């Protein structure tokens, strides 16, 4: 029997941005908050001197221990899913701060089109433009309603950036100016400008100068040391939950993080959540932590697994298209997004590519969302083009032109020669949901406690492939203008299939947001329609995937959800948004 | 090895020669094929004759001992194969000179060698299933065999193949012969039980590059020469003052040993 603990106001699964923001906002109002984190305790001190590529980028020290829990994956419903066995196919965050500690810091707002994607598409192109199996739907909120929360997140994380010339309206400028620039960033910007595009600097949660956020937390100026992505910051110079929201929550005296605590179930009575059941990883002892509000702020797989296991909401069925939990799983799948593009080799240029930081770079949004007219395009939504200067580390970067022998003298010669003479520009594509891409529980494989693993079934539709191919062509166009001597494409074949790789860490959906309980799990406060004291935050609430990175939107919705929770606790409870029956089934 | 009486090795045997040179072994008269197992003992005896005991002790790198590989004949195939992938040239040392074989030996003896951080519940994927997987690293992930078992099978197969084709162990074969076997390995043409052989080639190459370019604390990248060849400056605290430079800025590398000591 699990030991039942003393009730608190709020109990949260996970300590990433979503859980951290919730903890900060609720504890500041005086509520007692407990966060259950299955990973180890970690602080800034863990990252001092952590410039070890083998440990962090190759052996994935900060990523989830897959020996205990992973996911299974397959490319269609006909296949048997295989477990994801090694972190080279799954960079899921772990430990205090979650994935928000090892992130690059790319901080992007999504587009007005994203939140009203169904209605705007129908209005502009007619319903027939939406492919048969495509299950895009509106989010039940507009960009304008979300904008204040975006602004709040940017100020908390200390985003350094400049105005996007083709971006959505902003109520305020970024809290910090853009990061330093480099010759290769300027080359990318010049080439794309020559072609008529509108490049701008990547908004970065890496500090261009020392910054103190509205909660009073100081984040140091970035040193451009090149150990950022996949690393905790050596200098406390990256906007992450450890140096911001978790610290803010800690200072209130109302917050407790229980590390090494794996949540296995949401305890509930069918209408209300009662608390969370968890196992202490060290002792194996089971506990129940009751609370007035229960918050799931884990990664997409954790949230979906807990809902399915706890039998909350109706599981999605791809055959009948009924049910919700597990529906509209999407992501930045790495063989049609993020890692595709054009690599240029330059014989007469040499850059300081070993220097850099997570979100140092520039991007082009001319093809983002619905920024171009899609009437004559065979896909919806779009992509962005990026050039990153994140610091090229030597084990992970051994790029030689195609046709070079795979080993031996010539291989070594070219590997060394091009180390500081090759650049890649990449297309980050959107992925729109379809009825055959979803999450459920695996029938075979189990986690360390004997519970089924989450199974991801990912089917690429034709429009996803066309969108990606269009992106690669634009990368090639820009790289040609940049003057590379040799250009190799990281291309997308017509018959590309999901490769079971979860490398971008941007995976979304399954407990999606909307205005109709028949087609969504949560409302725009991330509150479960079926259980009003259960809030499910994070990427799991996104009904589709934009071309933009998800983190800032996760942060913005966490601020909105926190506002809802404060209202809920201070008032009568109940649903914060009235349900509508607008969506087609 | 001028005194080696195997004609096949006269033209070229970079792996063994470099390995012996870089591990400080005295070559003359000791390194005949049948004596491989006794190399280290022989070296001690041979050196003892020339030098004082203290001097000899100071010279031996204590990390130059095998922990995973029991058999020296497996280790010399590994050393030869890594040097073939990343050879010594005008740019600088090859895999052996960078201590890559010792790096791999240490890695195989730890968590990585037993896939300790991986999900390891059955059912695994059989060989036919592994062949259908596109990416080499993913083939390795789904094998029932861990990386240690895969390495032993792969290296022994390379050696057996060399004996069968050329009547010479892999390290004793000519460079051309070694490349022929490596080519068949990389093309997936050698039959392994644990994984398709192209996946073993990818694993071997990846491990070689890791040994060449990881921080020296792991026993490879000797003297940070791997980093120097790539003009990578290692664990430097900051590039804030130089990152905007129009020119390429060449900096001496810093290892974690140096960096963490300063904290």
TrEMBL record, chain A:
Pfam (any one): GMC_oxred_N
Gene3D superfamilies recorded: FAD/NAD(P)-binding domain (3.50.50.60)
Domain of life: Bacteria
Chain residue ranges for the region called Disordered: 157-178
InterPro entries associated with the record: FAD/NAD-bd_sf (IPR036188), GMC_OxRdtase_N (IPR000172), GMC_OxRtase_C (IPR007867)
Family of this protein: Belongs to the GMC oxidoreductase family.
The protein's name: GMC family oxidoreductase
Species this protein is from: Sporosarcina ureae
Record lineage: Bacteria, Bacillati, Bacillota, Bacilli, Bacillales
TrEMBL record, chain B:
Name of the protein in its database record: Dehydrogenase
Gene source species: Sporosarcina ureae
């Amino acid at each position: 029997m699990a030991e039942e603990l003393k009730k608190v106001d709020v109990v949260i699964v996970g300590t990433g941005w979503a859980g951290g923001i919730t903890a900060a906002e609720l504890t500041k109002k005086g509520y007692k908050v407990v966060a259950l984190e299955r990973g180890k305790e970690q602080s800034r001190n863990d990252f001092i001197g952590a410039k070890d590529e083998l440990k962090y980028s190759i052996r994935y020290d900060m990523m989830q221990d897959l020996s205990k829990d992973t996911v299974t994956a397959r490319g269609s419903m006909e296949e048997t899913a295989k477990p994801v066995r090694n972190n080279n196919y799954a960079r899921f965050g772990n430990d205090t701060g979650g994935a928000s500690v090892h992130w690059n810091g790319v901080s992007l707002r999504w587009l007005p089109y994203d939140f009203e994607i169904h209605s705007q598409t129908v209005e502009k192109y007619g319903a027939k433009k939406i492919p048969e199996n495509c299950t895009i739907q509106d989010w039940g909120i507009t960009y304008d309603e979300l904008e204040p929360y975006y602004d709040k997140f940017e100020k908390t994380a200390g985003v350094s950036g400049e105005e996007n010339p083709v971006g959505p309206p902003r109520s305020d400028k970024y809290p910090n100016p853009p990061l330093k620039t480099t010759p290769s960033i300027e080359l990318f910007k010049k080439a794309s400008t020559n072609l008529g595009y509108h490049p701008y600097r990547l908004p970065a949660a890496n500090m261009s100068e020392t910054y103190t956020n509205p909660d009073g937390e100081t984040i140091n100026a970035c040193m451009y040391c090149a150990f950022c992505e996949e690393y905790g910051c050596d200098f406390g110079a990256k906007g992450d939950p450890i140096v911001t929201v978790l610290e803010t929550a800690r200072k209130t005296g109302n917050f407790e993080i229980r590390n090494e605590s794996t949540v296995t179930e949401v305890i509930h009575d069918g209408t209300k959540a009662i608390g969370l059941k968890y196992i202490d990883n060290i002792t194996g002892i089971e506990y129940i932590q009751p609370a007035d509000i229960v918050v799931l702020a884990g990664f997409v797989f954790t949230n979906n697994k807990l809902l399915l296991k706890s039998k909350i909401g109706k599981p999605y069925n791809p055959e009948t298209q009924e049910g919700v939990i597990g529906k509209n799983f999407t992501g930045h799948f790495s063989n049609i997004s993020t890692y595709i593009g054009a690599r240029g080799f330059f014989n007469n240029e040499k850059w300081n590519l070993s220097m850099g930081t997570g979100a140092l770079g520039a991007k082009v949004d001319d093809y983002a969302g619905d920024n171009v007219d899609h009437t004559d395009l065979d896909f919806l939504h779009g992509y962005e083009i990026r050039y990153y200067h994140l610091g090229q580390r030597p084990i992970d970067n051994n790029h030689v032109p195609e046709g070079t022998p795979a080993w031996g003298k010539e291989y070594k010669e070219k590997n060394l020669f091009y180390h500081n003479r090759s650049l890649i520009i990449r297309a980050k594509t959107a992925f729109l949901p379809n009825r055959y891409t979803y999450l459920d529980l695996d029938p075979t494989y189990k986690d360390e406690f004997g519970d089924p693993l989450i199974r991801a079934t990912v089917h690429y539709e034709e429009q996803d492939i066309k969108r990606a191919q269009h992106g690669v062509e634009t990368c090639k166009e820009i790289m040609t203008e940049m003057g590379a001597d040799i250009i190799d494409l990281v291309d997308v074949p017509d018959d590309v299939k999901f490769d079971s790789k979860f490398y971008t860490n941007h995976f979304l959906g399954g407990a999606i947001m909307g205005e109709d309980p028949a087609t969504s799990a949560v409302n725009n406060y991330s509150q479960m329609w079926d259980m009003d004291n259960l809030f499910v935050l994070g990427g799991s609430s996104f009904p589709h995937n934009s071309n933009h990175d998800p983190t800032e939107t996760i942060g913005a919705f966490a601020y909105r959800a926190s506002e809802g929770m404060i209202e809920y606790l201070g008032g009568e409870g109940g649903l914060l948004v009235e349900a509508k029956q607008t969506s087609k089934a | 090895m001028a005194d080696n009486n195997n004609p096949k090795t006269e033209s070229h045997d970079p792996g063994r020669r470099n390995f012996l040179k870089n591990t400080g072994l005295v070559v003359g008269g000791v390194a005949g094929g049948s004596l491989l197992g006794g190399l280290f003992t022989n070296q001690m005896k041979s050196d003892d004759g020339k030098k004082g005991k203290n001097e000899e002790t100071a010279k031996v790198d204590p990390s130059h001992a095998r922990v995973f590989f029991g058999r020296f004949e497996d280790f010399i195939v590994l050393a030869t194969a890594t040097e073939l992938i990343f050879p010594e040239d005008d740019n600088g040392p090859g895999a052996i000179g960078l201590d890559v074989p010792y790096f791999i030996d240490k890695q195989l003896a730890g968590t990585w060698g037993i896939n300790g951080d991986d999900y390891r519940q059955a059912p695994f994927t059989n060989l036919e299933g592994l062949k259908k997987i596109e990416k080499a690293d993913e083939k390795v992930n789904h094998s029932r065999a861990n990386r240690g078992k895969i390495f032993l099978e792969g290296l022994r197969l390379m050696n057996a193949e060399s004996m069968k084709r050329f009547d010479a162990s892999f390290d004793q074969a000519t460079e051309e012969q070694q490349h022929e076997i490596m080519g068949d390995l990389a093309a997936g043409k050698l039959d392994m039980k644990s994984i398709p052989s192209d996946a073993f080639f990818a694993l071997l190459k990846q491990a070689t590059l890791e040994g060449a370019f990881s921080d020296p604390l792991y026993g490879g990248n000797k003297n940070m020469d791997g980093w120097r060849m790539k003009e990578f400056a290692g664990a430097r605290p900051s590039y804030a003052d130089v990152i905007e430079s129009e020119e390429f800025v060449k900096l001496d590398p810093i290892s974690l040993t140096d960096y963490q000591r300063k904290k």
